[in-house]
Design goal:
four-stranded antiparallel β-sheet; alpha+beta; globular
Amino acid sequence: MIRKALLAALVALPLASCGNEEAGGDTASAISAFYDIVLSERQGGVPDMEMRTRLRPVISPELDRLLGQAAEAERRHTIRTNNSEPPYLQGDIFSSLFEGATAYKPGACTTERDETLACTVLLSHESEGEVFEWEDRVLLTLSANDAGTFLVDDIAYGGDWDFASRGTLKASLRAVIAQEE
């Protein structure tokens, strides 16, 4: 009973600052920590071990597990096909745009489920002086190990153009894993 009350208080306090406002300090920090790593690495497909190690402090254990399982599935696929087929996931898996974002701005957050926030992120890609913008949603969850700290748990792709990534990051990872089971 006391644990539930404490958990409710820990969830309610950061959520109260979120509402439909711009991302609060804790949520904006979580989003920024994640995208700073993603944008600095600019890897396509499932991230390698080094990048997953860098992401580990800012993503949920479940997302970390799925990234590792998808990397193993991609490895098995490469061996099984003698590297004659492309990877299942190509391009930037952390945004709707294949080429990936070059900049981001955390936006409004709303409560999705008990311990999950859905935060809009304005993403942009600049190339040859032209800027393309779109919104994806980042799902944040509270860390089980560090009260009050949010971790990226999933990304809901928001792109509405042809060939945009659809669905969610976790669904994409699960599909890759299922291909090689």
